[in-house]
């Protein structure tokens, strides 16, 4: 199941397509095939850009001759859960108290004394992720 062979379709068309390659299935409709293939390859280009950047950074870090460790995304998630790092949204106030949104609801008025900044954003772009 390559990403380039997966596409959203109605149940009737999906059943008709079955396990056929999209190129075989749509060989009589080249315009639709071209549109689907162009759309399917877009995520691959984004992933390629991220991987290229990641590998370039790794080479720069290795060139410093300092010890460098790498790990998988799964290892990163495991380590964050192991150390108890919060991953989610935090509303920061000038008063020093925070609101944290969790899957269980909003927790309000947490003192800065109980929070540790592990990443700072510029105020215009926010990372979003779900809490397990």
Word description of this protein:
This protein has 132 residues and is of the alpha+beta class. It contains four helices and three strands; from the N terminus they run H-H-H-H-E-E-E. Strands 1-2-3 form a three-stranded antiparallel beta sheet, with no helix packed on it. Strand 2 and strand 3 form a beta hairpin. The chain is extended.
Mean pLDDT: 75
Number of domains: 2
**Span of the ends, CA to CA:** 26 Å
Structural class: alpha+beta
Order of helices and strands: HHHHEEE
Percent helix, as a range, is 40-55%
- What global shape is seen? extended
* Low confidence ranges: none
CA-based gyration radius: 22 Å
Strand line-up in the sheet with most strands? 1-2-3
Count all strands and give the number.
3
- Main sheet attributes: strand count, strand direction, barrel closure: 3 strands, antiparallel
Q: Number of helical segments?
A: 4
Fraction of residues in β-strands: 5-15%
Short synopsis of the structure:
The protein has 132 residues and is of the alpha+beta class. The chain is built from 4 helices and 3 strands, in the order H-H-H-H-E-E-E.
Question: Could you list some keywords that capture this structure?
Answer:
2 domains; 3-stranded antiparallel beta sheet; 42% helix
